[in-house]
Amino acid sequence: MSKPESTGGRLEGRIALITGASRGIGAAVARRFAQEGAHLVLTARTPGALEEIDDEIQKITGDPATLVPLDLTDFDAIDQLGAAIFKRFKKLDILVGNAGQLGTLSPLGHIQPEEWGRVMDVNVTANWRLIRSIDPLLKASDAGRAMFVSSAVGRTPRAYWGTYAVSKAALEMMAMIYAAEVEITNVRVNLINPGPTRTAMRATAFPGEDPDTVHTPESITGMFVELAEATCMRNGELLVAD
């Protein structure tokens, strides 16, 4: 496949790591970042699903993405990911912490400890391990940018959403602390609340909802591009989709 000419996109030449990149918001952001000229490092648990989104990326850019099949609860593998990115690129310009797990919508007292632990591992601990592994790479960039996907339930208590809501509240606090810690560096850290979005997770949480009544993942990718740009000086903010 011949490589398309440079489009002069807003992320031209930037290296971006996106977790949960095989579907939904992660896949939409991957396609948009590719259109804006970024080189993508994509992670998800399923190799086949990653290969499908890579086929789409190659149609846009003419070049393959860097694919990393990865279960984010394999924390040692996250450390290895950081080392591999350093070995190949020496830096990382953009981190999109998108991967998440809903868990069972249930009264708090009915949630199984194993499920509680799994949701916290994916939604909170994995992102902390990413920060721990990737922070030096973001600081090696001339303009490191990190963003994490949150939810309205992380700030507004909602019955039966305990595991997911608590995990998102913890994620927001962690990201804000990280933003404060890097304030005097070239790294900027922010959060995105995508609002009601047409994803498989949304369909599980609201099985009777008409998907045409909520916005598509593609419609919110502009916020991710804004926060990923080297010229963006926002830090410690939460952007909410309209």
Would you kindly provide a written description of the structure presented here, covering whatever features stand out?
- This protein starts with 14 loop residues before the first strand and ends with a strand.
- The N terminus is likely disordered.
- Helices cover 43% and strands 13% of the residues.
- It has a seven-stranded parallel β-sheet, with helices on both faces.
- Helix 1 runs parallel beside helix 2 and helix 3 packs parallel to helix 4.
- The chain has a single domain, classed as NAD(P)-binding Rossmann-like Domain (Rossmann fold).
- It contains seven helices and seven strands; from the N terminus they run βαβαβαβαβαβααβ.
- It is globular, with a radius of gyration of 17 Å.
- It is α/β, with parallel strands linked by helices and 242 residues long.
